[in-house]
């Protein structure tokens, strides 16, 4: 393979992929993502298939660009947008089958629609899946957003989210986007109490009355 310098996009976008326990406002520019939509329990087979498809294509793109001498970089963390039935932001814990999600992995500027289609097709030849058929390149612009770092099990997120919501209210803002999570830790390798997850919401000023 051609030897080229390695780019760490977590450092390029440091303020978006690091956070502290103190909630803060950030400005999120337009970014490109591999994206796949789905519905259901995040412990269920549909979710696992979707994440597997995302990573398969993400690593295919990474190795393809490196082999072509275009770019060498690390695959970015998994991210998710979450919302309830009929657009509700509250996720009913008692019925996780109704949860809606879009799972995401950020992509470098060199990745375009045609390149994604090429590697989706390559992945489908190895292991076809409905998730690959839904996978696409999508550009998202969250703009003004509030975020905070949650450390610990996912089930303990509500307390951290409550602190973030209080910060948003005190800032004179309201929610303007879905619940966004960025998974900085691999749950297969990290102990639950050490999981690090960024919680983020796009926000907008409360309209003057």
From TrEMBL:
Chain ranges of the GyrI-like small molecule binding domain: 23-197
Transmembrane portions of the chain: none
Protein source organism: Plantactinospora soyae
InterPro entries xref list: GyrI-like (IPR029442), GyrI-like_CCH_Lin2189-like (IPR008319), Reg_factor_effector_dom_sf (IPR011256)
Coiled coil: none
Domain of life of the organism encoding this protein: Bacteria
Pfam name, any one: GyrI-like
Protein name as catalogued: GyrI-like small molecule binding domain-containing protein
